[in-house]
Design goal:
By secondary structure, the chain is α/β, with parallel strands linked by helices. It has one domain: Flavodoxin domain (Rossmann fold), CATH 3.40.50.360.
């Protein structure tokens, strides 16, 4: 069974109904560890050794965050800059993250249709995530498409529950190894892969 580490970074988690729904009872799932970075490090003083130990103990890493101004909140950038060090995560002898699976789970206020060429945001979510993808590549990790929840301000309770079920299903499949990486990487979002797997599209 794969162990999963969720690196959660949201400075206003208490006000995010979408992320509260996604993460409700999430640690009750077998093999899942939730690492709430803003709660763990309110002063931004990240314990690098602790974070490295967590990374090494897990096979699947998730950067879970809201999309703030086309990127992640500052805590996650701080975490990446400090923890994924040259000589440990990349560079000569930097092989500690080699072949681990990583992807972004994100929430965005804009609809999926708004993230496209010629639309409100001009670029796709995948294009905005290129720095994360290249970071993963640099560290010899296996980068997967994102799991994304769009139009968060428009979602009703039943929508939130549906996304939460989908997320739990994703974590279960990842933990049990019920996936084909090459097939997953064909989809823009992991949501699409999950829908294909369950026959919903």
């Amino acid at each position: 069974m794969n162990k999963i580490l969720i690196l959660f970074a949201h400075p206003r988690f208490e006000k995010s109904k979408t992320n509260r729904a996604l993460l409700k009872n999430i640690e009750q799932q077998e093999g899942v560890t939730l690492n709430d970075l803003y709660e763990q490090y309110p002063d931004f003083n990240i314990d690098i050794d602790r974070e490295k130990e967590l990374l090494q103990a897990n096979q699947v890493i998730i950067w879970h965050h809201p999309l703030y101004m086309y990127s992640a909140p500052p805590m996650l950038k701080q975490w990446i800059d400090l923890v994924m060090e040259h000589g440990w995560a990349h560079g000569r002898n930097g092989n500690n993250l080699k072949d681990k699976i990583i992807f972004n789970t994100l929430t965005a206020g804009g609809t999926r249709e708004a993230y496209a060429a010629g639309q409100h945001n001009n670029f796709t979510i995948r294009e905005f995530l290129i720095p994360f993808e290249q970071t993963a590549t640099l560290c010899k990790m296996i980068y997967l498409p994102p799991f994304a929840v769009h139009g968060t301000h428009l979602l009703k309770a039943q929508d939130l529950e549906g996304y939460a079920r989908l997320y739990r299903s994703l974590l279960e499949k990842l933990a049990k190894g019920e996936f084909n990486i090459e097939f997953m990487q064909r989809f823009p979002y992991l949501n699409d892969w999950l829908s294909k797997e369950t026959g919903d599209i």
